Amino acid sequence: MNKRTLVETVAAKAGLTKTAAESALDAMVEAISDALADGEKVAIPGFGTFEVKDRPARTGRNPRTGETMEIAARKAPGFKPATALKNEVSR
Predict the structure, then answer these.
(1) Residue 80: phi, psi to the nearest 5?
(2) Name one GO molecular function term (predicted).
C-alpha cells in the first residue's frame, strides 16, 4: 500500500475528503517525526510504539576493499507492534 492508497482508504473509512485525509495523515507523520526527533516515545494503543534507539559505535568492513573501518554511533527510529496488531496480522 502506498500513500495514495492509504489516503483513499482513510478517506473512505472516516468519511473525509481525500484532501482532508491526506492533511490528517501528513500531520500525524509530522507529529510522530517531531516527537522522535525530540527523543520522545510515541505510543498508539492497539497499534504500537515508536521510539528512538541508540546504535553503538562498531567496527565494520568496506565490502569493496575489505578494509576495516569504524562505524559511528547513531540514533535510529524503531517500532514495536502492540499485541493486538500482532494478533491481527497473524490471523
Answers:
(1) -120, 115
(2) structural constituent of chromatin
What residues does each domain of the chain span? 1-40, 43-91
Q: Which of 6, 42, 44 minimizes the C-alpha distance to 24?
A: 6
Tell me the pLDDT tens digit for each residue of 46-61.
999 999 999 999 999 9
Instruction: Using alpha carbons, select from 78, 83, 80 the residue that is nearest to residue 39.
Output: 78
Q: Where are the alpha helices (DSSP H) in 1-46?
A: 3-14, 18-37
How many whole angstroms separate alpha carbon 35 and alpha carbon 31?
A: 6
Q: How many angstroms separate the Cα of 56 from the Cα of each of 16, 69, 71?
A: 44, 14, 9
Please give the class, per CATH, of domain 43-91.
Answer: few secondary structures
Quote the pLDDT of residue 87: 94
